[in-house]
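// run 5 | inverse folding | seed 20
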């Protein structure tokens, strides 16, 4: 599958409190969370956070608390994927659990500007910057994780594969 869209470059050490400030943690509604995603980075960033965007970050994206609200907010804002030099491990797993594609790749955050169109081939891990033609290699998403993402997250995947999942099992 190809994911294509404009980049939103956010830098390194973007923690979960910046992705979705704690004052909005009263809901799990992705649309409500998405309305406040990255707002503490300022209007210069949030004006580029539109449906179809691909967030590009440096090191340690999603550090901080382990809340699933952070990748939910990113999805609710309409971002298609997050590409970073590195992720906090719990964010990486939470992103997959809510169906948000994430890719680790060296160098992209230094080679792309906000607004540049990028393409991600999820099967090969190839990431291409349209403006420069530069290509980067990320690990492709393994097939079993792609199934979870395609289903819309772990709960939806389990429902599809095993039938009803009760509230208690969530």
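// decoded
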């Amino acid at each position: 599958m190809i994911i294509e869209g404009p980049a939103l470059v956010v830098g390194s050490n973007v923690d979960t409190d910046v992705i979705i400030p704690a004052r909005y943690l009263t809901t799990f509604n992705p649309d409500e969370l998405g309305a406040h995603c990255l707002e503490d980075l300022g209007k210069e960033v949030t004006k580029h956070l539109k449906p179809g965007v691909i967030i590009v970050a440096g090191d340690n994206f999603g550090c901080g608390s382990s809340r699933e609200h952070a990748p939910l907010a990113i999805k609710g804002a309409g971002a298609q994927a997050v590409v970073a030099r590195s992720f906090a491990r719990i964010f990486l797993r939470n992103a997959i659990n809510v169906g948000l594609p994430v890719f680790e790749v060296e160098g992209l955050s230094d080679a792309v500007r906000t607004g540049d169109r990028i393409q991600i081939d999820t099967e090969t891990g190839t990431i291409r910057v349209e403006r420069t033609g530069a290509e980067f290699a990320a690990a492709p998403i393994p097939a079993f994780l792609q199934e979870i993402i395609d289903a819309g997250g772990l709960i939806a995947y389990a429902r599809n594969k095993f039938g009803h999942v009760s509230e208690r099992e969530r």
